[in-house]
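DM from R.C. (forwarded with permission)

"hey, sorry to bug you on a friday — could you get me a structure for this? deadline for the figure draft is monday and I only need the backbone to look sensible"
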Amino acid sequence: MTRKKILIIDDDPDIVEAMRMPLEANSYAVTTAKNGKEGLQKVKEEAPDLIILDVMMDTDTEGFHVAYTLRSEDADSEYKKYKNIPILMITAISGKKGMKFLMEKDMEYLPVDDFIEKPVKPKDLIEKVAKLL
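My reply, with the result:
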């Protein structure tokens, strides 16, 4: 059986490692990228089964831009074959910027499949990943 590939796009190496360990312990293959540009390149190289995407990296909204790029409706988009990869957005934006995400409301305009707040609890991460895959 082939292990499911997960791409983590996050600029915080401690957060990345805290997610990598439980994911690999649950037999997922994990690849990482430290920003949106590198993440988009890794999507093309790796064709992951799931993307875990941080919101705030080089800019406060970089993760949103990555999600919109991947989910573009443009028929000529270089990412069109990756459009249906599930995206789990991780964020500490509510603590840092005072914004809260409400799944039912925010899913209408954010092209992601689910949210999880930092700090990420391993059990919650594994449950959300399993649900999306």
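R.C.: lifesaver. The longest strand covers residues 5-9.
me: no worries. Residues 5-128 form a domain with the Rossmann fold fold (CATH 3.40.50.2300).
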